[in-house]
Prior knowledge:
The protein is an all-alpha fold. The protein has 12 helices and no strands.
Amino acid sequence: xxxxxxxxxxxxxxxxxxxxxxxxxxxxxxxxxxxxxxxxxxxxxxxxxxxxxxxxxxxxxxxxxxxxxxxxxxxxxxxxxxxxxxxxxxxxxxxxxxxxxxxxxxxxxxxxxxxxxxxxxxxxxxxxxxxxxxxxxxxxxxxxxxxxxxxxxxxxxxxxxxxxxxxxxxxxxxxxxxxxxxxxxxxxxxxxxxxxxxxxxxxxxxxxxxxxxxxxxxxxxxxxxxxxxxxxxxxxxxxxxxxxxxxxxxxxxxxxxxxxxxxxxxxxxxxxxx
Length: 274
């Protein structure tokens, strides 16, 4: 039985690593998968697991972008270090709205919106929005094609869009990518800025959840958590590299169609089967 829980942690880590970075809602997938792949652990531990496993995904960003995000690198000139700090300051500015709203209303939002109806609707709505925005931008030249062109005002506006992701099923990456594209950024800058925004947001969420739960893990619980986190880390590296390659030649409409289909599947499953 213990071995089965390890296998489940591996599978959940794979799902987290893929869905955290692609704009398709990790919550929507986790809700559906949880119907078939439930961890036989305490409810308190499962709540911690689904948040802390995201740390693996964050560490993947840190690894892949370590040089770009490291303002202390001896290989960088003084100007390059200032540019790196500038990226971090923009990340902080963009993190403020979701950080404040999430800290104040996290439990209330979960209570009101963490259900299959909301998740299904958000999957479908944002799927449609991806298609609309991509059609709108078809012949438009991005205003922001590098981080120097990304102003603090634009970063803050993208941060406001990230607040929408507090509603389950929206997708944090989906909301921020859509927001960034609506204010004129290129797909690549929208995706990378989304990756960077995840670092403080998800580290903060994981820390908050660990503080609430405490560190009273059994040895087996700790093993399950570490396995899921490690697998999430490995798969996230693959998913991020895939997304960056994909958007060089393709738009986000495929993800929009996928979200619509998934939203319908979730809705029908709970209405007709569960």
